[in-house]
């Protein structure tokens, strides 16, 4: 049958309402059989990673930078009522987003107590020991830990990390003064490395040293090494120089104090020089109060390079410009040699 006749017949059947649906479908196939097949359906749109996943990726490739810091009013009194919104953190001049704020004094603290036993620190050795014992009793809480080192020709671990205050004080009281030289940089560096290996994750790591800082015997480390390991292991450095005003009498003493001030400034700690030996207990008490009022800020750096480089940090309180904030001045990124 010719196509015009077939079409006419179909029209007639439609008008009579008697054409089966299958016939219509067949005719459509016959009519359009020369047309190209329909294009395949487009692929589903590619899913974009949600912002939360992107944040997780940053967290996996970046290190959480922890910043213990102290804030005090113009009179020197610790300030405990600040929130994350009060702080502004910049890394290499770029603003960072604070992701955590430890409640003042509630984050566990890991302390390495360094006691100078060398010839330059002997006049009031017993008094210094008693003051340090009182410090341990005052500062140590159930979740905290302490280790004890001596500073001499070689650093010695007198009492390994313990949460037992009595064990720490027993170790401290076992130390005896000796007439030997001072490997100060070796002792500080070894203590920083020790805290890095033994301290619980997320804790505040603190070195408190009783010394004049008169370095004259370190065989392994120098000042840059000590500063680097303090920063790499997230350690705050506090020093108490019992020399008092006598430290100004010679260049070696002045230089030793300068070493300790550099370490404390870089890490957010503090270097104390009590005027007289009787003030030692008050200085220890001040350190206890500061640790109990200390914040712990955390942020994931926007700089994801794993090059082991040093990143400068600054912390401010723009809403409270009258406050004095002490915090570490930088950290070392993961990676590198």
Task: Give the topology.
Layout: H1 3-16, H2 21-32, H3 51-61, E1 64-72, E2 88-91, E3 94-96, E4 98-102, E5 109-116, H4 125-139, E6 145-151, E7 156-162, H5 165-173, H6 184-198, E8 204-210, H7 223-232, E9 235-240, H8 251-267, E10 270-272, H9 280-292, E11 295-300, E12 310-316, E13 324-327, E14 330-332
Parallel strand pairs: 5-6, 5-8, 8-9, 9-10
Antiparallel strand pairs: 1-11, 1-13, 2-3, 2-12, 4-11, 6-7, 12-14
Helix pairs in contact: 4-5, 4-9, 6-7, 7-8
Detailed description of the structure:
There is one protein chain. The protein has 337 residues and is α/β, with parallel strands linked by helices. It has a domain at 109-293: von Willebrand factor, type A domain (Rossmann fold), CATH 3.40.50.410. Helices cover 34% and strands 23% of the residues. The protein has nine helices and 14 strands. The strands form three sheets. A six-stranded mixed β-sheet has the order 7-6-5-8-9-10, sandwiched between helices. The chain has a four-stranded antiparallel β-sheet with strand order 4-11-1-13. A four-stranded antiparallel β-sheet has the order 3-2-12-14. A hairpin with a 2-residue loop joins strand 2 and strand 3. It starts with a helix and ends in a 5-residue tail after the last strand.
């Amino acid at each position: 049958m010719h196509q015009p006749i077939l079409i006419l017949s179909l029209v007639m059947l439609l008008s009579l309402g008697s054409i089966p649906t299958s016939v219509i479908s067949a005719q459509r196939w016959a009519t359009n059989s020369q047309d190209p097949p329909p294009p395949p359906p487009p692929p589903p749109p590619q899913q974009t990673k949600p912002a939360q996943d992107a944040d997780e990726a940053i967290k996996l490739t970046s290190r959480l930078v922890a910043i213990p810091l102290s804030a005090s009013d113009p009179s020197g009194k610790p300030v405990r009522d600040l929130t994350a919104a009060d702080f502004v953190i910049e890394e290499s001049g770029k603003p960072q987003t604070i992701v955590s704020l430890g409640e003042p004094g509630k984050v566990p603290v890991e302390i390495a107590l360094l006691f100078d036993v060398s010839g330059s620190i002997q006049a009031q050795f017993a008094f210094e020991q008693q003051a340090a014992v009182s410090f341990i009793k005052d500062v140590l809480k159930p979740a905290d830990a302490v280790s004890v080192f001596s500073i001499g020709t070689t650093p010695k671990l007198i009492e390994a990390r313990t949460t037992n205050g009595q064990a720490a004080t027993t170790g401290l009281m076992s130390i005896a003064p000796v007439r030997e030289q001072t490997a100060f940089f070796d002792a500080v560096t070894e203590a920083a490395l020790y805290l890095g290996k033994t301290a619980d994750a997320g804790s505040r790591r603190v070195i408190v040293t009783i010394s004049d800082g008169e370095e004259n015997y370190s065989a392994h480390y120098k000042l840059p090494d000590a500063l680097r390991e303090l920063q790499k292991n997230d350690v705050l450095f506090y020093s108490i120089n019992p020399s008092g005003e006598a430290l100004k009498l010679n260049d070696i003493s002045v230089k030793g104090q300068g070493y300790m001030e550099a370490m404390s400034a870089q890490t957010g700690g503090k270097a104390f020089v009590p005027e007289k030996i009787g003030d030692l207990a008050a200085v220890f008490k001040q350190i206890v109060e500061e640790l109990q009022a200390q914040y712990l800020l955390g942020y994931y750096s926007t700089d994801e390079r794993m090059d082991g480089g040093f990143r400068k940090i600054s912390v401010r309180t723009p809403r409270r410009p009258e406050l004095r904030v002490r915090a570490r001045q930088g950290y070392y990124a993961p990676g590198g040699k």
